[in-house]
TrEMBL record:
Compartments (UniProt record): Membrane
Organism encoding this protein: Brassicogethes aeneus
Name of the protein this chain belongs to: Major facilitator superfamily (MFS) profile domain-containing protein
Superkingdom in the source lineage: Eukaryota
MF term (GO), any: transmembrane transporter activity
Transmembrane segments: 30-57, 69-90, 97-118, 124-144, 156-179, 199-218, 290-315, 377-397, 402-420, 426-447, 459-482, 488-507
Membrane topology: Multi-pass membrane protein
Major facilitator superfamily (MFS) profile domain residues: 30-512
Phylogenetic lineage: Eukaryota, Metazoa, Ecdysozoa, Arthropoda, Hexapoda
Gene3D superfamilies reported in the protein's UniProt record: MFS general substrate transporter like domains
SUPFAM superfamilies: MFS general substrate transporter (SSF103473)
Keywords tagged on the record: Membrane, Transmembrane, Transmembrane helix, Transport
Length: 522
């Protein structure tokens, strides 16, 4: 396809990369970063809030152990089941449309959850909540990245993912403020008692409405518009960015023509059926020259999610076991001794897979221990510091070196936790290891750099779908490993990290994006 020149003005003719560079970096970009970061925070709030809701709601909803386990992971199932669809819609219908609808629908479903009296309906609604919030999980990276040039794109994504840490801090902070309250209001016609946990669900959903309103104000991605043949709209958006960043008139923008040499197949896409279009959108990812990259990124996401989510999910459990061991034993506390410790008076639970939140005897307990809030808040704060550090260093060190160094330090701390003694030291070492989840943002920055615009959303969606599979797998395997094969847990995790480091080293240092038209035979 020949290069396309937009417009016929007398100003500079530039490629899109040069044109976006000329818009500068200022107030407009900061608003994009804050809004997109807020979107990521909403994903965390909607997918992770059940860790605090379940123990407080288990008596009202009559949750048994299997239902609590299902409820803990059902949002991730929803995210995984919808990732492919949202990736397709983002690449063919628009990034902004997907993001706004995802946030609005997920918040409405959360509001509905707070009025549900039955566990089966609550679980079903949480599945659909995950289904819709999955639209934000991957699409937001492509949307944010396409407002920036190659210099600012990795930094933008790194700074944006800082809001993941804010979400992890926001969750326990609100829960700590609301759940300990003892008030309740009976609503007979709905057959529910409105308690603090129901109010907490509403508050967790409110940020989604705020972020959706901000996204409505923002324009569509200019790069996406170019792929759809909407050249004039794209140029107007670039002028708006220039206007806000430089406090000048939009007409002062020095570009009147945009050179665009990526494939424009918008008319063909509109003529296809949904399933055919989704298939056509996915196939290029698994063909040369993208096949190896796609397999590598899917593997990286799976492995990093496996380690980070698996340990994070069991971190409060580990702390609880060590605390009980310290209180009831004269021996020095170590990780595996604590996990092997069994006090029959502590948990009246016939299965050896114990949980922080269980039914003691026949009495339903719905009080959440303050230690859980404190630990979660501490980990969230550490995440925030780590994301800020990554955002500050990525421009100087580079994505690849930073990622390898980061994973090496985290893995070393995890391994060391198995060989040291002392509650505080073990808590700190495992806490540092949990920060390896911050590597996910760096992997997403690689994906944004290495795929063309037309399939970038799908590439992120597919790779993150494998990541969610990794999270579910890790959450279910790490627990039994801790209780049965504790001495080998972090060796498994270290081997996992070694594979990740090798794959990262094989990634290209400088982005080279093949033109999509070379990969598809029509």
């Amino acid at each position: 396809m020949a290069k396309i020149a937009l417009g016929s003005g007398q100003k500079t003719v530039a490629s899109f990369e040069d044109a976006i560079h000329m818009t500068g970096f200022g107030k407009f970009n900061l608003f994009v970063i804050i809004t997109c970061g807020g979107c990521l925070m909403c994903v965390i709030l909607e997918t992770m809030c059940m860790s605090f809701i379940i123990p407080a709601a288990q008596c009202d909803l009559n949750l048994n152990l299997s239902e609590k386990g299902l409820l803990s992971s059902i949002s991730f199932f929803g995210v995984v089941s919808s990732s492919h669809l949202w990736g397709f819609l983002a690449d063919t219908r628009g990034r902004k449309m997907v993001l706004v609808q995802s946030l609005l629908c997920s918040s409405v479903l959360s509001f509905a959850c707070c009025l549900v009296p039955w566990s089966w309906l609550f679980i079903l609604l949480r599945f659909f909540n995950g289904f819709f919030i999955g639209g934000c999980s991957a699409v937001i990276y492509a949307y944010a990245g396409e407002f920036h040039d190659q210099n600012f794109r990795p930094k933008t994504i790194a700074w944006m993912t800082t809001f993941v840490a804010f979400g992890n801090m926001f969750l326990p902070s609100l829960a700590w403020a609301i759940l300990p309250q003892q008030w309740s209001y009976n609503i007979p016609f709905m057959n529910i008692t409105f308690k603090p946990w129901r109010l907490l669900l509403i508050i967790y959903a409110l940020p989604s409405l705020v972020v959706a309103a901000c996204l409505i104000v923002l324009p569509e991605s200019p790069k996406y518009l170019l792929t759809q043949g909407r050249y004039k709209e794209a140029l107007e958006i670039l002028k708006t960015m220039y206007k806000f960043n430089f406090n000048k008139q939009a007409d002062d923008y020095p570009v009147s023509d945009i050179l665009w040499d990526e494939l424009d197949n918008s008319d063909e896409v509109k003529k296809r059926s949904l399933l055919v279009s989704m298939w056509r959108q996915t196939v290029p990812l698994f063909k040369k020259p993208f096949l190896i990259k796609t397999l590598m990124f899917c593997s990286l996401q799976f492995l990093i999610f496996f380690s980070s989510a698996g340990i994070v999910m069991w971190y409060p459990e580990i702390l609880n076991e060590m605390s009980q061991f310290s209180a009831n034993s004269s021996e020095r506390v170590s990780l595996c001794r604590a996990m092997a410790y069994d006090d029959d008076d502590y948990f009246e639970f016939p299965d050896q897979y114990r949980s922080l939140f269980v039914f003691k005897g026949r009495v339903c307990k719905d009080l959440v221990k303050p230690e859980v809030f404190q630990t979660s808040l501490l980990v969230g704060s550490a995440y925030a510091c780590m994301f800020v550090l990554v955002g500050a260093l990525i421009g100087f060190v580079g994505k690849k070196k930073l990622l390898v160094s980061f994973l090496t330090v985290c893995t070393a701390c995890g391994l060391a936790s198995q060989f040291v003694y002392g509650y505080t030291l073990i808590q700190m070492l495992i806490g540092v290891f949990t920060l390896c989840g911050a590597a996910i943002g760096l992997i997403n920055a690689f994906v944004v750099d290495l795929y063309p615009t037309q399939i970038r959303g799908m590439a992120l969606a597919v790779s993150l779908m494998f990541g969610r599979f990794g999270a579910m797998t890790g959450s279910n395997l790490i627990g039994p490993l801790l209780y049965h094969f504790c001495d080998y847990v972090f060796f498994v995790v270290a081997a996992n990290s070694l594979v990740v480091v090798i794959l990262v080293l094989l990634l290209p240092s400088m982005p080279h994006i093949p033109r999509l038209k070379e990969t598809i035979t029509h």
